Automatic annotation (TrEMBL), chain A:
Enzyme Commission numbers on file: 2.7.13.3
Protein name per the record: histidine kinase
Span of domain PAS: 251-321
Family matches, as PROSITE patterns: HIS_KIN, PAC, PAS
Gene Ontology molecular functions: phosphorelay sensor kinase activity
Catalysed transformations (reactions): ATP + protein L-histidine = ADP + protein N-phospho-L-histidine
Organism of origin: Chitinophaga silvisoli
PAC domain: residues covered: 325-377
Keyword field: Kinase, Phosphoprotein, Transferase
Length: 621, 135
């Protein structure tokens, strides 16, 4: 029986061989006592000979996994076992257990080798592989799988544990087999790496793309390494990129054709106001060649009067307060004249939000402006003409009234009297009637003369308008009425805020004469007559006022008749009822109007409104 | 033979007044002819005689176009008067105007007996007076 480290003395070679084994071994007898071991075992486990032979040590926790295996005495091969070894952080052993049969008993032996460093390499390899691709296959040129490394198995769900030794073709759809064989041939012939992107290589009807890379590690070696990587995300991203690029190209194409062929002038402008690009239309509108234009800054073309507004708008864009603006500006044509441009400006931005350049679109609206101003002018003339026509209608209506009453009246009386004449036997009666008839005939004649004057006024609108000095005219009239002024001790007060009135001088004199004469006529005996003559401006119209402190007139009673022909309102005053009628007719003829305010016993104020607008428009006609 | 007591002719045309008077005198149907050359005078006369029905006119021939107070103004004042009970005054508007606008204006005064356009002959006057005569 062997009690301790003993080697069969009968076979010295056996002991020498055992001692030379790199693998360690430990053998026990049926009772579990250690009967043999070799130096490699001591070395691998880093224990002493006495520890090895101490059954107590083997039962202690220090014996670790090997102690356990010795007690279990199971048969196995090539288990990787972690063993606690003094002064070694990590120690993996590849261990095999075997029964030993002698003639009398059954012993047990563990053989083991330190594989720690191998496992470390393997682990690094796995780490490297997993960082590279989804799947790496090593296979023969015939397609037999030698090794399979799989990352992200969730995606492919291949039974990778069982794949070793099987044909790669049973894992791929029919349609890819031929193509894959071609790829293998290509790799063998070219000796170079071959890469393809295949859609759905496992035939699972998925929108997935895999990049397959085949490499032949060496020409003597009949193996091929296939690495497979899921590139769906990249593929889709590429697809989108391609699409985006196409769209971008399309829109650039569109912009280019718009730019080149648009009837609208378009320019790209730097933020410092230099022309970056100008289209043909704008060049044509402004009259410059491309070369001439590129040397100019925008600011040299904008009309000086429009400059402040232009600067303000561009500043707002540059400050990013607005993105676009529209404006109407005058731009200088190459010939020197200015063109009215309607323009829209918008900013093109860089990805960071800063301004890349400005896009300026401009249309020549000079003609439109002209049309617009023509239309306005015509409108004014039309308006004036309409006022003029209304006045003329009023005048005609008034003339009709005069004919009906002041001409037809005495005429009918004359007819009646002619019928009566034969019946008058008495000479005295005849004479009386003849006297009346004469008066009537004279009345008709005087009315006809007045009508003639009125018509002359209306026809004579060609009278020259000159600047009339109102003060001079008033003073002159006042002295011509000196007799009445002295008689009544009348006072004149003037305030001419508008010293000059553009009018026909004789007509203005006539208007002032009648108004001042009336003011001197209808005076109150108990107060000293005070007559005020004033002018001022009111809504573009010059107003002339003649105001008195005379007897006044009951406008409620007589208002509508005040300016009528041959109307009289005050008994006992010298009046033929023609003056106010005539001046209103004059005023109306030139588009003006006359108004009155009065209070019985206090005085009257007459206001003449000179319509300058009509006069201007008549010049335009 | 019955006669109409008072007739007022309101017109500023002296020739017309003269011719009317001649006609009235010749027809001998009117006792007294009152001449007024404007509406105000006629109105004042009527106002002053509201208490003397014998002096009030039975007929007024009223011209439209007159100074101081014209025919229309007279009519507006006239309607305000309160005439003695039972007193009937026929008012005719006489005008030389043939304008539709004047005719329309006359319709504002429905109590008018008529609207006459000058010239007015002897026959028309006779007709008007005959109508007025007490039966």
């Amino acid at each position: 029986m062997v009690q301790s480290k003993t080697f069969n003395p009968a076979n010295q070679w056996y002991g020498a061989i055992a001692a030379a084994f790199e693998d360690g071994y430990i053998a026990t007898n049926q009772a579990g006592q250690i009967v043999a071991f070799n130096p490699s075992a001591l070395e691998i486990l880093r224990i002493s000979e006495s520890q090895m032979l101490d059954p107590g040590w083997w039962e202690s926790p220090s014996a670790g996994a090997l102690g356990q295996l010795l007690r279990e005495r199971k048969e196995f091969s090539d288990h990787k076992v972690r063993q606690d070894v003094p002064n070694k952080k990590d120690c993996w052993l590849r261990v095999s257990g075997k029964a030993l049969h002698t003639q009398t008993e059954t012993g047990y032996m563990l053989t083991f080798r330190d594989v720690t460093s191998y496992l470390e390499v393997n682990r690094s390899l796995n780490t490297i592989i997993s960082s590279l691709d989804d799947i790496i296959l090593e296979m023969t040129v015939n397609g037999t799988l030698l090794h399979v490394w799989m990352n992200r198995t969730s995606r492919l769900t291949l039974p990778w544990m069982e794949m070793q030794g099987k044909s790669v073709y049973q894992y791929m759809p029919e349609r890819l087999i031929m193509e894959f064989q071609h790829l293998i041939r290509e790799v063998i012939i070219s000796g170079k790496e071959v890469v393809r992107v295949l859609q759905d290589p496992l035939g699972r009807n998925q929108q997935v793309w895999y990049r397959i890379r085949l490499v032949r590690p060496g020409t003597t070696n009949n193996t091929i390494i296939v690495s497979i990587h899921d590139v769906t995300a990249e593929y889709k991203a590429n697809e989108e990129l391609r699409e985006a690029r196409t769209q971008l190209e399309d829109s650039q194409q569109v912009f280019k054709s718009v730019f080149d062929y648009s009837p609208t002038g378009i320019a790209l402008l730097s933020i410092t106001g230099q022309w970056l690009d100008v289209n043909a239309s704008l060049l044509e509108t402004l009259g410059y060649t491309r070369d001439e234009m590129s040397g100019l800054s925008v600011s040299t073309l904008i009309h000086p009067d429009d400059m402040d507004k232009a600067k303000a708008q561009i500043a707002q864009i540059l400050d990013r307060k607005i993105n676009t603006y529209r404006a109407e500006r005058r731009y200088k044509h190459r010939d020197g004249h200015y063109i009215y441009m309607f323009l829209a400006c918008s900013a093109m931005l860089n990805p960071d939000g800063s301004i890349r350049y400005l896009i300026l679109q401009m249309i020549d609206v000079t003609e439109l402006k002209q049309l617009d101003s023509d239309a306005r002018k015509k409108n004014i003339i039309l308006h004036a003409t309409s006022i003029d026509l209304q006045q003329k209608i009023k005048q005609l209506f008034e003339l009709n009234q005069i004919i009906a009453h002041n001409l037809r009246g005495p005429a009918t009386a004359l007819i009646s009297s002619v019928e009566l004449l034969p019946e008058l036997a008495n000479m005295e009666e005849q004479q009386e009637m003849l006297d009346h008839m004469k008066i009537s005939a004279n009345a008709i004649l005087s009315t006809l003369n007045d009508l003639k004057d009125v018509l002359a006024q209306q026809a004579n609108t060609e009278l020259p308008f000159t600047p009339c000095n109102v003060e001079a005219i008033t003073k002159q009239l006042w002295s011509s009425l000196n007799q009445q002024v002295v008689e009544k001790n009348a006072q004149l007060k003037v305030n001419f805020r508008e010293s000059s009135i553009e009018y026909s001088r004789p007509y203005l004199e006539n208007i002032l004469f009648h108004l001042i004469n009336n003011a001197l006529t209808y005076t109150r005996p108990d107060v000293l007559p005070e007559i005020r003559v004033e002018t001022w401006k009111e809504d573009d119209q010059i107003v002339l006022m003649v105001s008195d402190n005379g007897i006044g007139i009951d406008l409620q009673k007589h208002g509508e008749q005040l300016f009528r022909y041959k109307k009289k309102f005050h008994r006992g005053y010298e009046s033929n009822g023609v003056g106010l009628f005539m001046i209103r007719n004059q005023i109306r003829t030139f588009g003006g109007s006359i108004d009155v305010k009065s209070e019985v016993g206090k005085g009257s104020s007459f206001f003449v409104y000179f319509n300058n607008r009509v006069h201007i428009s008549k010049d335009d006609e | 033979m019955n006669k109409i007591k008072n007739v007022c002719v309101v017109d500023d045309d002296e020739l017309f007044q003269f011719v009317m008077r001649q006609h009235f005198e010749r027809l001998e149907l009117v006792e007294k002819i009152h001449k007024f050359t404007d509406g105000e005078q006629a109105l004042n006369y009527i106002k002053q005689n509201l208490n003397k029905p014998d002096n009030l006119p039975d007929l007024i021939l009223l011209d439209v176009n007159m100074p101081y107070m014209d025919g229309w103004q007279f009519l507006r004042e006239y309607v305000k008067l309160s005439l003695p009970a039972g007193k009937q005054i026929k008012v005719y508007v006489l005008t030389s105007s043939t304008h539709e606008s004047d005719l329309q204006r006359a319709k504002e005064f429905p109590f008018l007996a008529g609207y006459l356009v000058k010239p007015i002959g002897k026959n028309i006057i006779k007709e008007i007076l005959t109508e007025l005569l007490p039966a």
